[in-house]
Amino acid sequence: MTEPSAALQVAALPGLPEIAADSDLLAEIGERLHDGPVWPDGSIGCRDGDVLVVASKIVAKAEGRTRHAMGREELLDSQTAETVAGGGTDGAGVRIVRTHHGFVMAAAGIDNSNTPNGNVLLLPEDPDASARHLRAGLQRLLGVEVAVVITDTFGRPWRLGQTDQAIGVAGLKALLDLAGQRDSHGNELMVSAPAIADEVAGAAELVCGKTSGLPVAVVRGLGPLVTTTDGPGAAALVRPKHEDLFTMGTREAFDAGRRAAVSGRRTIRFFTDRPVPAELIAESVSDAITAPSPHHTTPWRFIHLRDRNRRQALLDAMLADWIADLATLDSYSDENIAKRVQRGDILRRAPELVLPFLALADACHDYPDERRNGCERDLFLMSGGAAVQNLLVALSARGLGSAWISSTVFAAETVRDVLGLPDGWQPYGGVAVGYPRDQAPQRPPREVGDHLIVM
Question: Hey, what long-range contacts does 41-44 have (CB within 8 A, 24 or more apart)?
Fold first, then answer.
């Protein structure tokens, strides 16, 4: 197991001038390393195994990454691969973005500190390439094998304050994978992977500060982690997006969830055997009864039919009605009837069954004419559909699959008789509920087309 020594020394490199686009950064750093830093043992400059830590600002200045601050928003857009969190609700807050490098940071690292008034600095175009260039040049100038870490300041989720992290690395094991090693008690390490380059960046920040004009430091004592090759760089520290559990901010996640709630509902016909907690169905019904309805009424009723014997009795009775209709009214053959009634098996297979109803007896206003009475009934029927849709969306939002099956609508009297319900309860189908066996394929957005008429 490769580990650093038990002691580190960190020293800032004094004497660097203001760096600009016409500066030879390599020459400026190399010249100062002939005279400093001075170490406690009396040695001067760098030796094999040292790590040179360089603030990204002077790298960016030398690479001509200074821009006028007037176009800051346009600059931010140009440096953004995607927005992770969008600042305040009025758009005036700081944007947390994923840069083209893969870094997640405030304002894509664009900064005006330690920069002439009216200007801002972008991050280096390719910090790993910049680190490799500096390393090769310093090794040529100084004749020693060193590593280079380029740093920038990051905020941190869950914690206040900022700290420097590595954005460019050459010649250092940026990430030390200790998985499979054992600790002093013999326990196997499962996921331990110290971010060595980030820790080096933080150590250098302690001696360089933010206002002292010391953008370069040397860290001594990490020789075992310095490599002969440049290595993968800081790119090794960037978590792949598909592994990231926090790909967006809290508000953005809520917004995305709201937008996806309706289209995310799919008809699920096959379920696992995983038990469905009754409280999830109760919560979904609570959401369902927020549907709009006439006259501020709440005419919806939902039966969670958990009794398997009663479910069997109900489905058998409805099946008998269905077969009778197909045989006598539709003149189906026995073979065609057998094929048709298989569609109702989903209500038998589903782990849970919810039956929506509309209780009309005391809800509708009674008008003296049939036209308005018919309109009144239509209004309540539409509110029943809204409640069912609410239920399906609410189940989906809780990770449950559902399928709305219309069968109870065609056997209203049978349903009321078997379950002992009042005559005024109008069935609204049956909803099969369970955890999906398979993930439903993505459904592309539907074109509005003729469905939306603008007048």
Answer: none
